[in-house]
Backbone:
């Protein structure tokens, strides 16, 4: 071929290369060197054109298959009449300039006249890297999906829209117990038939499957029970492809243990773990059911609530194991008190309830007496024999309540009255108790608001030396005026506060306010010891001494300017602990007094041990002086006792001169009462005990009661 012809052909071939759109190059048939290369090939190889043009064909793709092809082409070039090797098409790989292996499909064909020797070879390469990566990713994804399918704890079944099974995992076969024959070859009908025959209700199962298949987009979750006793949770949801449903995925989870646990929990939620009796929740439901039945038949019923007296002492002294055995014994005894159909329950630590059907007041009373008798029989535990007693409250339907909650509340209030009445007895609910309880609740709520709104205030009653008439102290007394209730006396709200425990918060407030006022009087040049009443509950708080020390420290008040008035009951309740606490307070310099001495119980041996500074004679003994000889004898004995123990003694409630004179004659040290002044607010107290300087002499005389 002439040079112009070769150049024309080469120009045409280059145009062909550029038009292909795929990597390609042209190889000279004689020299087997690259004559032309397109831009796509250069990009694939990562080489510039000069590095490719003129290079041997076997240098670009050097696989054995390619080397053999070019050897055959080289041999054909040596034989002018040879047609050269035929086309070559296969998947292979080439190495680019960066050394990366590129997966390609390579095609080689000869170019030239059909009946003559080839003039050139066209090499076209298709880059399969992206397709290979996608294939690898698909294979990896399928592998991961299969691993996930097999590793899940759920049995998985995948079906198409027609219900044909596409896949299921081993867990599915295990849950349903599929035989081996259904695992080795696909048998959709046999698998479905096996599942249908495994469920307890095949007809309902089949109907539900039909409903699900008809609703292509339905998502559903339900439980199915098998003949084996297994309970399965079946969840199904549609499978989508390109936004359209293409099948359905079913998951099956074995809930047998969960259902069994739920049943056990339900049993535990309705019964007492120790005795096996109904618990409070289940007893309330039983009472509600009994009320519905009684209402339909115009019948009656009784609810008895009992509390074992002093059971805490058994637990504390003998241990909880013995206490549990006592409760079990008590439960057995109570069962003997009831008729068939009646119910006994343990509704609290040491509280039991009895539901008696068709019982009026006489029947309820008879049951209550049987309960008292049964519980009081001697109880022997670990060779120790002792006697139990209980307090019983009774409420009747319909007289005492129209629902279970009301009956329970009324039985509880009646039981509390039985305990307050001396224990070992029973009490019926009384209607007026409701009004009392509502009043106490209203008072309790108002008290809490009063403290938060600073409606409480302190008044101070002067305490005087009987011999000199000098004011030697002040007792802080709480006062409360409510915007709705008006003036509320301490006698009304203090018992409610003690009952609810709110007395602790009130006591802390009184202590802080009294110490604050004592510090003000000290700073004003009028040091005045202030007495503060302390309830037994407040004193028993573990941090009580720390609170006292903190308040004194906050106001930098000497302990000698604070006196704490305690009740006699504090001395006998855990005497050793009380002694330790009182000793700590005494070390702070705080003075200690026994309030209302003679009205409670106190051991003289305890009294001798405690660091008490003063005894306070209750106003009930002072009121009868001087006419009542018994009161006189008691007061005289208290004074002599105080003197023998080197204690001061003060009388409260002194209202007449004869009372003051007799107390002085008996050797009483101090007094307080209306004879001198009632409890006054802080400003009035100051004006009463310390008049202006211009009236100093008169002030001294005014402090002397004549």
Residues:
């Amino acid at each position: 071929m002439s040079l112009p012809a070769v150049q024309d052909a080469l120009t045409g071939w280059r145009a062909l290369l550029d038009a292909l759109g795929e990597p390609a190059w042209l190889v000279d048939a004689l020299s087997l060197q690259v004559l032309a290369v397109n831009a796509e090939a250069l990009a694939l190889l990562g080489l510039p054109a000069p590095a490719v043009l003129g290079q041997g064909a076997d240098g670009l793709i050097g696989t054995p298959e390619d080397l053999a092809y070019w050897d055959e082409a080289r041999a054909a070039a040596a034989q002018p009449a040879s047609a050269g090797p035929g086309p070559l098409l296969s998947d292979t790989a080439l190495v680019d300039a960066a050394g990366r292996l590129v997966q390609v499909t390579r095609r080689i064909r000869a170019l030239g006249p059909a009946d003559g020797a080839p003039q050139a070879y066209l090499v076209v390469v298709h880059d399969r890297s992206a397709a290979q990566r996608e294939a690898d990713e698909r294979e990896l994804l399928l592998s991961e999906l299969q691993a996930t399918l097999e590793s899940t704890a759920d049995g998985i079944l995948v079906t198409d829209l027609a219900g044909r099974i596409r896949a299921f995992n081993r867990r599915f076969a295990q849950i349903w117990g599929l035989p081996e024959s259904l695992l080795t070859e696909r048998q959709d009908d046999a698998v479905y038939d096996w599942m249908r025959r495994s469920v307890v209700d095949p007809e309902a199962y089949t109907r539900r499957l039909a409903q699900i298949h008809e609703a292509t987009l339905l998502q559903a979750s339900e439980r199915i029970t098998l003949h084996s006793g297994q309970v399965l949770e079946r969840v199904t949801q549609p499978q989508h492809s390109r936004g359209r449903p293409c099948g359905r995925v079913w998951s099956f989870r074995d809930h047998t243990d969960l259902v069994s646990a739920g049943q056990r929990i339900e049993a535990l939620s309705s019964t007492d773990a120790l005795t096996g009796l109904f618990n409070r929740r289940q007893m309330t439901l039983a009472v509600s059911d009994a009320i519905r039945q009684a209402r339909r038949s115009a019948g009656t019923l009784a609810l008895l609530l009992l509390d074992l007296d002093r059971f805490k002492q058994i637990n504390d002294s003998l241990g909880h194991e013995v206490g549990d055995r006592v409760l079990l014994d008590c439960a057995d005894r109570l069962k003997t008190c009831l008729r068939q159909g009646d119910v006994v329950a343990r509704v609290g630590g040491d509280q039991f309830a009895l539901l008696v059907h068709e019982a009026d007041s006489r029947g309820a009373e008879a049951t209550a007496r049987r309960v008292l008798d049964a519980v009081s029989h001697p109880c022997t535990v670990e060779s120790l024999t002792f006697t139990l007693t209980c307090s019983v409250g009774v409420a009747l339907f319909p007289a005492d309540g129209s629902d279970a909650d009301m009956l329970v509340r009324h039985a509880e209030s009646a039981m509390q009255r039985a305990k307050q009445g001396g224990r070992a007895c029973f009490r019926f609910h009384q209607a007026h108790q409701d009004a009392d309880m509502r009043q106490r609740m209203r008072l309790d709520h108002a008290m809490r608001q009063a403290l938060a709104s600073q409606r409480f205030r302190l008044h101070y009653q002067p305490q005087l030396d009987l011999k000199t008439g000098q004011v030697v102290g002040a007792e802080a007394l709480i006062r409360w005026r409510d915007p709705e209730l008006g003036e509320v006396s301490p006698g009304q709200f203090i018992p409610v506060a003690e009952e609810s425990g709110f007395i602790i918060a009130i006591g802390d407030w009184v202590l802080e306010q009294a110490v604050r006022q004592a510090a003000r009087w000290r700073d004003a040049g009028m040091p005045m010891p202030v007495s503060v009443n302390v309830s037994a509950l407040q004193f028993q708080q573990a941090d009580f001494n720390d609170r006292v020390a903190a308040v004194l420290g906050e106001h930098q008040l000497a302990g000698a300017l604070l006196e704490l008035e305690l009740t006699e009951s504090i001395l006998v309740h855990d005497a050793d602990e009380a002694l330790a606490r009182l000793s700590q307070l005494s070390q702070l310099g705080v003075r200690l007094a026994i309030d209302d001495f003679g009205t409670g119980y106190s051991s003289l041996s305890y009294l001798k041990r405690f660091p008490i500074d003063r005894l306070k004679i209750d106003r009930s003994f002072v009121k009868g002086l001087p006419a009542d000889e018994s009161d006189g004898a008691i007061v005289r004995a208290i004074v002599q006792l105080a003197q023998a123990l080197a204690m001061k003694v003060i009388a409260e409630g002194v209202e007449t001169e004869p009372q003051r004179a007799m107390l002085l004659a008996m050797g009483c040290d101090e007094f307080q009462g209306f004879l001198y002044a009632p409890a006054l607010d802080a400003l009035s107290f100051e004006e009463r005990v310390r008049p202006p300087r211009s009236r100093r002499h008169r002030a001294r005389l005014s402090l002397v009661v004549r």
Q: What stands out?
A: Residues 129-151 form the longest helix (23 residues). The longest strand covers residues 471-482.
